[in-house]
Design goal:
The complex is a heterodimer of chains A (336) and B (303). Chain A is mainly alpha-helical. Chain A has 15 helices and no strands. Helix content of chain B is 70%, strand content 0%. In chain B, helix 3 packs across helix 14 and helix 10 packs antiparallel against helix 11.
């Protein structure tokens, strides 16, 4: 088991090097040199330009620059935002909980609906429930979620006035962030109605962000269930006279869920991509909106650091999923 | 073919399985009703794209100052002059959608053929040369897969600058790893087979082996992936357009149409609803057809 963990963990090193290379190259591939970018639209004199080039080390060979960059990254120094002058890492740390909270609720929504839907579709294969679930899941999978979000806002917020249009909590509630998760912080603050307000703000964005994972989970659960239901041990269980309920819960579901867990893990990357669009639509103050705004403001240090951080999160999540998968399924662990 | 014609008895015995590849393909494809529906939708959309100039009732960028934000025809205030209403600048939404079809197919064709052709070459190289080339290419692809496709596309557009052409380049780079991996995997399974060894022994050169002998036998998964890639390309291009990083106004691209309609969300539902519906229908059609193609072309992947 230890060998499995070590080899899997070692595999992320080249990927991580690659991602730093990408982030490093990014800021140098942008037309115009980095100092001009840092100066922005104000412009800069020639001497000051040369001085800053030397100060930031942009006159050194690329390899040296890269080494310096990686050393800085490993010490947690990802540069400063051009527009706010704040360290990129600090800004990321302040916004990341909002994205995690949203992604978590989206995934919860997707699992709570997706798993039962997939199971029902598999059990009623070829019948009406199956067609409904599969049709809905293909539609969900094809959904432009930025439009889906607008439709939901149009219906629930504008027409029915059930949910708020944007933000994380109504403006009358204010408290210092403790955990960064609005649901927990609002409870801790003890203010009446704060938690409900935070929850109401979460509903629509979670549905929007959870739509594609929901479709993927339902499809995956169905096909995995169908495969397991054909296995010999299910036939044995049936022959023994076990109740269908027991067969499904105890025998089929446990085995069918293994591939589904992997798929759920792999959806984390997709969630972060979806968060870019969802957060933009709902003005959700998270990492996705921050990245999009950094492009609009041409704030390249944020984009560079943000991409590196998001990629690191995804790599680590994928590693965790890999390890968990090995834990559940010994066949993977002992492969090779 | 001549061999099969020589044994009519065998043919008659297998009446259920037609001998012609195309007929066999259609047999399996038409089993899947969703796929046929997808195909029909795609044919309709292609016709709309080709004949956009003829079908569209108005010029897509002409602004009718006397008809700003007109609702669709079935609304009390709508008129048959603008069937789906007009946008905030007084442009006919239906005409813009029809011309947008052309744009979306253009984006799909260019992005898919770019990533398909580069992916095929890289995948072939990876599978044939093995060793350092293989490791270098596959590691690079792993890194690209570590980033969500939309984020990678955004980074590339941020480097190249916003615009339709750059968005297409970004999308084709983003989806490159899928084709490379698929191609490499097929090459690895194919290159061990007897027919490859036979042509190698009879003196076929490396390029001939790669492109003439092996490549045609790896087409099925590539076609499926290409179809599904078409829908992803359209979806991502629309997302980039929506974020203001893709096609720029007044181009009638569906995603940027949505973006420019945002502030009128509360006043005019139709400017937001129709472009998104167009995206959904197109993407759905390609996903439906892709599923059917997979069933018809690749029995191994059949669910």
């Amino acid at each position: 088991m230890l060998r499995f963990i070590v080899t899997r963990a070692a595999l992320i090193i080249p990927t991580f090097i690659g991602v730093t290379l990408l982030a490093f190259a990014m800021i140098r591939l942008v037309p115009g040199d980095p100092i001009e970018l840092l100066a922005g639209e104000r412009g800069i004199s020639a001497e000051r330009h040369a001085k800053l080039m030397a100060e930031y080390g942009f006159d050194k060979p690329l390899l040296v620059q890269y080494a310096v960059y990686v050393a800085e990254v490993l010490q947690g120094d990802l540069g400063q935002s051009i527009s706010t002058r704040q360290p990129v890492l600090e800004e990321f740390a302040a916004l990341f909980p909002a994205t995690v909270e949203l992604s978590f609720c989206a995934m919860l929504f997707a699992m709570v609906l997706g798993l039962p839907a997939g199971i029902v579709a598999a059990l009623k294969r070829g019948k009406a429930p199956d067609h409904v679930v599969m049709g809905a899941s293909l539609t969900g999978y094809s959904m432009p979620i930025f439009w889906w979000g607008l439709l939901l806002i149009l219906f629930f917020s504008v027409y029915l006035r059930w949910t708020p249009v944007s933000g994380r909590i109504a403006i009358q509630y204010f408290f210092e962030p403790v955990t960064g998760f609005m649901l927990i912080d609002s409870l801790l603050s003890g203010q009446e109605g704060a938690f409900t307000s935070a929850l109401r703000h979460l509903i629509l964005p979670s549905i929007v962000l959870g739509t594609i994972p929901l479709a993927v989970i339902a499809r995956m659960t169905r096909s995995s269930m169908l495969e397991v239901l054909n296995e010999d041990y299910i036939r044995t269980a049936r022959a023994k006279g076990l109740s269908p309920w027991r067969i499904i819960n105890l025998h089929a579901l446990r085995n069918a869920l293994i591939p589904v867990i992997t798929v759920i893990g792999l959806q984390v990357g997709a969630l972060l991509a979806g968060a870019i669009l969802t957060e933009t639509i709902f003005s959700w103050p998270g990492v996705g909106k921050w990245l999009v705004e950094s492009i609009r403001r041409r704030d390249y240090p944020i984009l560079q650091g943000g991409v590196l951080l998001v990629a690191t999160v995804i790599i680590l999540v994928n590693l965790t999923v890999d390890l968990l998968y090995g834990l559940i399924n010994p066949r993977i662990r002992h492969a090779r | 073919m001549t061999v099969q014609a020589a044994s009519p008895a065998l043919d008659a015995g297998q009446a259920q399985a037609p001998a012609r590849p195309l007929r066999e393909f259609w047999y399996y494809f038409s089993e899947n009703k969703g796929a046929v529906l997808g195909l029909a939708l795609i044919v309709l959309l292609i016709l709309a794209a080709i004949f956009a100039d003829v079908i569209a009732p108005h010029d897509p960028i002409e602004q009718y100052r006397d008809a700003l934000l007109k609702p669709p025809v079935w609304d009390a205030e709508g008129s048959s002059r603008f069937l789906l209403g007009t946008d905030p600048a007084g442009r006919d939404i239906l005409s813009r959608l029809i011309h947008g079809t052309r744009l979306s197919f253009f984006i799909g064709i260019i992005s898919v053929s770019l990533s398909l052709s580069v992916g095929v070459v890289l995948g072939l190289a990876s599978g044939f040369f093995r060793g350092v080339v293989d490791i270098a290419i596959m590691r690079l692809m792993d890194i690209m897969l570590a980033l969500p496709s939309l984020l990678l596309a955004i980074v590339i557009v941020a480097i190249l600058g916003p615009g339709l052409v750059n968005a297409m380049i970004a999308i084709s780079i983003t989806y490159l790893p899928h084709y490379v991996r698929l191609m490499r995997a097929s090459v690895l399974t194919e290159s061990g087979k007897d027919y490859v060894t036979a042509s190698r022994v009879s003196g076929a050169g490396l390029l001939r082996l790669m492109f003439v002998v092996v490549l045609p036998n790896c087409m099925a998964p590539l076609i499926v992936q290409g179809t599904l890639g078409f829908s992803s390309a359209i979806l991502d291009a629309a997302a980039l357009g929506f974020l203001g990083l893709g096609a720029q106004p007044p181009t009638p691209e569906w995603g940027s149409m949505l973006a420019s309609a945002l502030e009128f969300l509360q006043r005019a539902w139709w400017v937001v609803t129709f472009p998104g519906l167009a995206i959904l229908i197109t993407v759905l059609a390609f996903n439906l057809m892709g599923d059917g193609l997979r069933d018809a072309l690749d029995p191994k992947l059949k669910r």
